[in-house]
Predict the structure of cAMP-binding transcriptional regulator.
Amino acid sequence: MSDMPSCQFESRPRRIVIGAGGAQTDFCTTCSVRPTSVCSVIGPDDISRLSDAAVETIIPPGRGFIEEGAPATDFFNVTSGTVKLFKALPDGRRQITGFASPGHFLGLAVSDNYAFGAEAVDTVRVCRFSRDKMADLLDDFPKLERRLLEEASNELVAAQNQMLLLGRKTARERVASFLLDQMHASQLPGQESSGGRLHLPMTRGDIADYLGLTIETVSRTLSWMRSQGMIEVGKGYAITILSVPKLDVLAAGNT
Amino acid sequence: MSDMPSCQFESRPRRIVIGAGGAQTDFCTTCSVRPTSVCSVIGPDDISRLSDAAVETIIPPGRGFIEEGAPATDFFNVTSGTVKLFKALPDGRRQITGFASPGHFLGLAVSDNYAFGAEAVDTVRVCRFSRDKMADLLDDFPKLERRLLEEASNELVAAQNQMLLLGRKTARERVASFLLDQMHASQLPGQESSGGRLHLPMTRGDIADYLGLTIETVSRTLSWMRSQGMIEVGKGYAITILSVPKLDVLAAGNT
DNA sequence: GGAACGCATTGATTTACATCAAACCATCCG
DNA sequence: CGGATGGTTTGATGTAAATCAATGCGTTCC
């Protein structure tokens, strides 16, 4: 599945800019790098039909590109990098509701406004579609609709797991669950198995906002896990999982 | 929309039983009471095609009818009553991930096993479909697929709100948000506006498991809200909202 | 009637995590 | 180089909510 034809848009490049001093973009040149993305669903032959609707956009680390509550004009397919999705309270408290990696769709909401914000964690490439053309697109490509339903169902399952984590798990259980999830995500087909080595693209602050904890608690918990021989905390964003079983026991709540 | 043709299955009744001493069921007689359900999507003319697939089931209060992790054989459409959906940890901690009211679909998961449990809060009626026939159903009724995607998107938005609540809100904010949600849910088109009177079908324990709190904290918080003149706590499951603005301020975190 | 049960309320105490605070350590940059 | 900056770690203290515990109050059922 990983050697499927890369999907080339044949139109002439056009540049657009996001935000002040923002990212430059061209028409999507390789809109699908993994079997889960748009192009693999609708097939390379259909691409010319999309070329005036889809634009590839490169978003630098830290830049937001969906604002919670803003009119929902576009619809995105992540093609590389990691995106954080979040909701915020008026006083600044934040909850990251998920991290979107290549293949994920953003902006499905039926509402006319985005229900969440989105920001690039590292350098991100997305394919951007106009939501106006969404209905036509779905009518023309039934497979896309099936794919979106599948994606939404998967996200719903992930959301339910996260609600269990946020509502009922302790700090240690949360961090253990997170690390295991990240490990599983990095072991998807097409990725070489990395022997427990993880490169988390997000900061401690992001992890804290994802797990409903503070930066300090995340840091302390990782230190404790290190002291227990469960993990190794490397420079920068590297973490190595030394004992999956120990983390499993923790994550399941069999303290 | 509320006076649409009721959708009659014309087949002869058949009885089935759920669990020991369980509920009796017939073929679905009125599978749609609200514009969101299956029958309103596919239309009364198509019903005969479904009559061998859909079975109406009546589930008594407290009875579980989906077990987390069990093979996902069926797919449900709630037609009356309230269902609680939950996930549990091995040691018994529970998180209710949502309450499903008439019109909601259950068991969409792409996985072969249910990702959550489901239990009737009060007396519940559901339309039950075999998941084997789901794919055919979707192929035959594109509108149903569009409807399911819409439903899944809405649930995703609700799930994100709940993650913000569970991860970042205080107990008071959680209870205030819950009461407002319940009020909005009871004010859907087709319902008479009830002047702040709510009849919550679920126990304090259910509310606690939904909000990631304990029974005691929910009870204390309601008592505190009563002392602040925000609500009136009636006998049984009745709660009257006396000041929506006060609850709004609380729920938004403008403490 | 009155035991037994489930559910709710209220009080006393404990605790896991947040908050406040300080130091550490890269990288960047004039 | 040396000082800012942004992220991380570690320590001391505070607190919101959990836990432990007792009481109340309808229902059900001998």
